[in-house]
Amino acid sequence: MLFNRIVEKLGDAVERHSITANNLNPEITGVASVDSAKAGTISYIEGGAFAAMVSQTAASALILPLDESLIIAATERGLAWVATKQPRLLFAKAIALFYQPFQPGPGIHPTAVIDPSVVLGKDVSIASHVVIQPGVTIGDRACIHPNVVIYPDVEIGDRTILHANCTIHERAKIGADCVIHSGAVIGAEGFGFVPTPQGIFKMEQSGRTVLEDRVEVGCNSAIDRPAVGETIIKRNTKLDNMVHIAHGCEVGENCFMAAQVGLAGGVKVGRGVMLGGQVGVANNAKIGDGAIATAQTGIPSDIAPGAIVSSSPAVPNKLYLKVSAIYKRLPEMYRILKKLQKKLDLD
Fold first, then answer.
1. Catalytic position from the list 145, 163, 244, 247
2. Of 212, 255, 299, 313, which alpha carbon lies 20 to 30 A from 279's?
3. Which residues of 197-216 are buried (b: 16+ CB within 10 A; e: fewer)?
4. CA 136, CA 337: separation in Å to the nearest integer?
5. Which architecture characterizes domain 107-316 according to CATH?
């Protein structure tokens, strides 16, 4: 589509643009990263790290921050451009103009096994070898890919997508516009066992798992149900691949968890929390609203709202950075200490 049409579709987030002459209104055929872009594509610049690419990229159009020097550089090269406070967000919207994920049409494959008691909404898509057990309710325009297994009494909301080979265990409730990726398991038994002198006694997990609207769960992630009560993931939270949410956890709205994050039982996570890859959180810890834990942080106890923590056990990120800067100097500091100790011994 022509660049001016893209600008129209991107809407009010575009604060400035280059549409002043025909030569700045190229036809755009796709999107690309700024360092691998070709003629006919649109890309974006965010921050100073890629600023030099304005003079090097082969893209025909750029999404820029509100930086006058970058705008001038793009204009001098004859590139079409838009400027915004959030270039990455605008680029995400531009991608959606050129690409839509695979979505099969409505219908039920003849190999699907669906209990007669199942309630199906309008225009549902159910692929091959899906198994849906009694008492399940599925909302309008939901999409269930091959080999998905849905246990009894599950609720699935409108337009939710279950990708191939995921499993939804009994009594789980999944809201509207959710995405459950391949291999994920929602609502399996929590790890509940009671040690006794006679051995380990299994505690049945009678609770359920609840995912509110617009939750996304990555491949091979697991969200367990508790012995009693609910494990809850609140609306618009996004989980990466191989994330484990244990029994009885509560995760707030608009949270992000990168790959291999693990929450032990009973953890409470506030709103807008970001956990980097391989973060581990101990039993019943509470993480306040807006907190951030960088990759591989170990969280043994409560984290205050807005805190930024690193390392294991977790410490304030600023302290961690200071310690890290000192760490590589430890051999040198050790040699100096040994020399001082030797001098003191001689004295």
1. 247
2. 212
3. eeeeeebebebbbbbbbbbb
4. 70
5. 3 Solenoid (2.160)
For 24, list phi and psi in degrees, rounded to 5.
-110, 25
Locate the domains of the chain by residue range: 3-98, 107-316
CATH 3.20.20.370 fits 3-98, yes or no: no
247 in catalytic set: yes
| Neighbour order of strands in the sheet with 143-144 | 107-108, 125-126, 143-144, 161-162, 179-180, 216-217, 238-239, 256-257, 274-275, 292-293, 308-310, 315-316
Q: With 0-12 CB in 10 A as exposed, 13-18 as middle and 19+ as buried, what is 238? A: middle
pLDDT digits (tens, 9 = 90+) for 206-265: 999 999 999 999 999 999 999 999 999 999 999 999 999 999 999 999 999 999 999 999
State the pLDDT at residue 342: 84
pTM: 0.89
| Residue ranges in the chain assigned as alpha helix (H) | 3-10, 68-76, 87-98, 317-327, 330-346
217's enclosing H/E stretch is strand 216-217
Contact 99, 120 (CB under 8 A): no
Q: Which of the four pLDDT bands, split at 50, 70 and 90, describes residue 121? A: very high
341 band by pLDDT with thresholds 50, 70 and 90: confident
